[in-house]
Write a structure and sequence with these properties.
The complex is a heterodimer of chains A (about 525) and B (about 280). With about 525 residues, chain A is of the alpha+beta class. Chain A has helices at about 15-25, 25-40, 45-55, 65-70, 95-115, 125-135, 135-165, 175-195, 200-210, 220-230, 235-265, 295-320, 345-355, 360-380, 390-410, 420-430, 435-440, 465-480; strands at about 80, 290-295, 450-455, 485-500, 500-510, 520-530. Chain A is built from 18 helices and six strands. Chain B folds into two domains: about 55-145, no CATH class; about 170-270, Orthogonal Bundle (Cytochrome Bc1 Complex, Chain D, domain 2). The chains are: A alpha+beta (about 525), B mainly alpha (about 280). Chains A and B meet through α6, α7, α12 and β6 of A and α1, α6 and α7 of B.
């Protein structure tokens, strides 16, 4: 008995079956693959793709131009570059790199978002979860943090390069201005991301940073409240920082980046200053013989850069010796750690605030003058020449700003003009409050019970202890140079406290130089056999 | 250009290999991190305990007249939980007790204060993770508590509630040790405001003298005829007579089951020294 095959209803039409009937199976499949490749690449069929990869001369009309004209992804990429501009020099590909890092941060950030809730009740717990219970969690967190820090550096270098080569000059003033906005966005995205782990580091870095908002003229109190969500950074402040970090600022960034990238392509990459007549801009008039087409040369390079960068970034955090994002103890508004600072890229503001009035140095100069000045600079400095010789004033300002920023950054660190107690500093060398430090990382087994004098480090029963005591002794001696500290001595008391738990007391005793009375400072650290500090936290 | 392709493909392959390698190592890494963080919790818990708990529970959790022992075997071998009729784990018990405090004391104990609430969720000062740290610290006593301290077996005839029973010769020094240590009398009495003080205070004579006066008072409802009997009655029949100004049932009613005749004799000898 034959099974009857019902005829297809008339509204179902399968041209592929007709193709097979007319052309045979093999030809139909290759044609279909060709068709799909052409659609996906917006204009290149399989043999075109192969010729791109082989570096062959394109057929005529050149199919490699259609993706730029018709596709989305390449519509903002130039079809050809000037042969002076297609390599690493003179742009160092910094703008491209910044875009790469922006994408990298979005991808790794989305992974982390899955495991994070912006609430002080659980945020820190989430961090521990990411580190202890999420596959690749620590890796993604590390690389997200590293990418963010690198992005700040790269964006700043990109600005410096554009300034030095005079690329902000007419007609690219607006490109520069959008770049200035992107710089500000980058700094603040990174800054608000700092708060999210909700550890001591984040809370205090952001508290210091946010305190400058309070100095804003007229609306300082309101700015401060808006930013912190209350008199102190709490649940509201964390939620706001989170939303700024993951939505508001990235959206501004994407828009500004779109405009910036469009303007760059629209005006063409500005050529090295020395190859153009003063006052002319020939970036868009690339002679035929100087053209380097995006496909295949530049594209291949950029894809290779992407692969290599991905590998390098992943490798940088993959191993124990690599970069690991810090995680300090849970945020505690009542405990201010010694040596707490704002994020490094805002240290210059912290340094400036040590110069004097908070209103002037903390708010008006950095946020009212410096950052806006960066944005509008090309509309102020309008000299037509991009040659270095004609821009002595501008370049001097750049050099001066660089040195100034470096000096101010140093001044922002705790080592400049911060009143400290030498006794606390001596203890903090072994037991720093913002990083694990030598005592916590010391070999637990090598810390014998007893009371040990720092000065007697040579007689310590173990090498580890001897080294720790020696360091301690050096620091205590430094304290002795202060006339208030007469005859300071360091003590380390190690007690058996619980199974696998030692209680370690660091004590500095001295005689007060003014009152002649004995004084002491102690700090206690409990150390567990398996606490295993130095995993990059 | 072919070098770019080669390098790019190589790097891509390298990234894939790296992912695979990391994937293999992730499980042990996560476990090691979890272990290290539990250890750090214990460290943090130790510091919190030192600042908040030691005044009542002793610097090493050995207990004081103000709060029970935490580092003994009973805590870890289930005896203590059984006494409460607690069916959950010790960890849950600790977490609950630390978080919410203890509005009512355990039966058989009468500490002068109540365990306060510690968790923010119950109006206390500690964050959830801090409570967890303290729990971790207390649980860390387990090994030593179970290995070292077998609960001291009570030897000798138990006291019971009869105040006329013949007592052996008492030693007031041993009695002092009981009052200030094992039995925790000192938590409420001696000089305290919580229970009647034993020592002479504010014009009142000491306990032994007061006992003589009490049995002669009109409102005295007990059966004691001597100061010694009055004191024994107060220990083993706690509600026989309640001193004016105090509520009944505050003094634990089960001392008769907890102390031996010798204990009673020692305690009595000690109490009679307060004149």
């Amino acid at each position: 008995m034959r099974v009857p095959i019902p005829p297809l209803p008339s509204f179902i039409h399968l041209p592929f079956l007709d193709d097979i009937k007319h052309k045979g199976l093999k030809k139909s499949v290759t044609d279909l693959a060709d068709d799909w490749t052409t659609r996906i690449t917006s204009g290149l069929n399989i043999s075109d793709v192969r010729s791109v990869l082989r570096g062959d001369t394109p057929r005529r009309p050149n199919p490699r131009l259609t993706p730029h004209a018709e596709g989305f992804w390449l519509h903002m990429k130039p079809t050809y570059y000037h042969n002076l501009m297609d390599g690493l020099y003179p742009t160092f590909r910094l703008g491209w790199l910044a875009t790469f890092f922006f994408a990298w941060e979005i991808l790794t950030g989305i992974y982390l978002m899955v495991f994070y809730t912006p609430s002080p009740l659980v945020a820190y717990e989430n961090m521990l979860g990411i580190l202890s219970n999420v596959p690749f969690g620590r890796w993604m967190r590390d690389t997200h943090k590293l990418g963010g820090e690198l992005m700040v550096i790269i964006v700043a270098l990109h600005m410096l390069r554009s300034f030095v080569t005079g690329s902000y000059k007419r007609p690219r003033q607006f490109t520069w201005a959008t770049g200035g906005i992107l710089l500000i966005v980058t700094l603040f995205v990174s800054f608000f991301g700092y708060l999210l782990p909700w550890d001591q580091l984040s809370l205090w870095a952001v508290t210091i940073g946010a305190s400058t908002a309070e100095a804003t003229p007229l609306v300082g109190r309101e700015m401060d409240l808006l930013l912190r969500g209350g008199p102190e950074i709490g649940a509201n402040g964390l939620l706001r920082a989170y939303l700024l970090h993951v939505i508001a600022l990235p959206v501004v960034g994407v828009i500004a980046l779109g405009v910036h990238y469009y303007k760059v392509t629209h005006h063409g990459f500005s050529l090295p200053p020395e190859v153009e007549e003063v006052g002319t801009d020939t970036a868009r008039k690339v002679p035929m013989e100087a053209r380097v087409y995006f496909m295949p040369k530049v594209m291949t390079r950029e894809l290779a850069y992407v692969s290599v960068l991905v590998l390098l970034l992943l490798a940088a955090s993959a191993f124990s010796w690599g970069y690991h994002a810090p995680l300090e103890p849970h945020a505690d508004p009542l405990v201010t750690p010694l040596h707490t600072t704002s994020p490094w890229y805002f240290l210059w503001i912290q340094g400036m605030m040590k110069l004097g009035d908070k209103l002037i140095f903390g708010a008006i100069i950095p946020f009212g003058i410096v950052l806006p000045l960066i944005v509008v600079w090309p509309y102020l400095e309008v000299g037509p020449s991009r040659r270095y010789g004609s821009r002595r004033f501008g370049l001097s300002i750049a050099a001066f700003s660089l040195i100034g920023t470096a000096v101010l950054t140093y001044m922002g660190t705790p080592w400049f003009a911060v009143e400290t107690s030498p006794d606390q500093e001596a203890v903090a060398v072994l037991l720093p409050q913002t990083s694990p430090g030598p005592l916590r990382q010391a070999d637990w087994e090598q810390l014998p019970y007893g009371t040990f004098e720092a000065g007697q480090w040579a007689q310590a029963p173990t090498r580890t202890l001897s080294r720790l005591l020696e360091t301690f002794d050096e620091e205590v001696e430094k304290a002795g140079r202060d006339p208030r500290y007469v005859g300071p001595e360091g003590l380390m008391i190690i007690e058996d406290w619980q199974p696998d738990l030692k209680k370690i007391t660091l004590r500095v005793v001295w005689t007060d130089g003014e009152t002649g009375e004995a004084d002491a400072f102690s700090q206690v650290q409990y150390l567990h056999r398996f606490s295993d500090y130095g995993q990059g936290e | 250009m072919k070098y770019y392709i080669l390098v790019g493909m190589g790097a891509l392959a390298g990234a894939v290999v790296l992912f695979a390698l990391m994937g293999i190592g992730e499980q042990p890494r996560m476990e090691s991190f979890a272990r290290s963080y539990n250890s750090r919790r214990i460290e943090e818990g130790a510091a919190i305990f030192e600042n908040n708990c030691r005044t009542c529970h002793g610097p090493q959790g050995e207990g004081t007249p103000l709060g029970p022992t935490l580092n003994n075997a009973a805590m870890f071998n289930g005896e203590r939980l059984q006494a409460f009729g607690w069916s959950g784990t010790l960890e849950d018990f600790l977490r609950g007790t630390i978080s919410a405090g203890r509005p009512v004391p355990s039966e058989g104990t009468n500490y002068p204060g109540r365990m306060p609430t510690w968790s923010e969720a119950y109006g206390g000062p500690m964050r959830i993770d801090q409570v967890e740290s303290v729990v971790g610290f207390i649980l860390n006593w387990e090994e030593r508590a179970l290995a070292g301290a077998e609960p001291t077996p009570v030897t000798g005839e138990m006291m019971g509630t009869d105040m006329h029973v013949a007592l052996p010769t008492g030693d007031s020094e041993a009695g002092r040790a009981l009052a200030e240590g094992t039995l925790g009398c000192a938590a409420c009495h001696m000089l305290s405001e919580v229970g009647p003080s034993w020592a002479a205070k504010d014009g009142l004579p000491g306990l032994a003298v007061r006992a003589e006066i009490r049995i002669g008072q009109d409102d005295y409802q007990g059966e004691a005829t001597t100061a010694a009997e009055y004191l024994i009655e107060s220990v083993v029949q706690t509600n026989a007579y309640v001193v004016a100004g105090y509520q009944p049932d505050i003094m634990p009613p089960n001392f008769g089951e907890r102390i031996t005749l010798q204990n009673m004799a020692d305690l009595l000898a000690y109490m009679l020294t307060f004149r």
